[in-house]
TrEMBL record:
<keyword id="KW-0732">Signal</keyword>
<protein>
    <recommendedName>
        <fullName>Dihydroorotase</fullName>
    </recommendedName>
</protein>
<feature type="signal peptide">
    <location>
        <begin position="1"/>
        <end position="19"/>
    </location>
</feature>
Length: 116
């Protein structure tokens, strides 16, 4: 009985912790883009290299690491995932061609691509 009660308390506290994490992300929050563990970003949707080049940009992902970015819009999809639109805080464009990018915020934080 005590083990069941302890398990219930742990589940409730864990779910409340997740709810608090989701609530702290709002429009105007500053986050950092981190270097991904793999070769590519999986949850931050950068434009394809050919679109960057067509708009006169430079394809260099290394310049985008450790950059503070601001959340300018949050959109919740039907399946419950949250997409955010990000812009650089220094006023410059991503790759010198795109003003903003889109990211799946919850999965990007879990994967370490974005840090709060």
């Amino acid at each position: 009985m005590k083990q069941l009660l302890l398990l219930a308390i742990l589940i409730i506290s864990f779910s409340s912790f997740q709810a608090q994490e989701k609530e702290t992300i709002e429009v105007g929050t500053i986050v950092n883009l981190e270097k991904p563990s793999g070769p590519d970003f999986n949850y931050i949707h950068f434009p394809k290299p050919n679109f960057i080049i067509k708009q006169g940009g430079i394809v260099n992902y290394n310049r985008e690491f450790n950059q503070p970015v601001e959340i300018i819009a949050i959109k919740t999809k039907k399946d419950g995932t949250r997409q955010v639109r990000l812009k650089r805080t220094d006023g410059r464009k991503f790759f010198q061609s795109h003003r903003s990018i889109v990211a799946n915020i919850d999965k990007a934080i879990k994967a370490g691509e974005i840090s709060l």
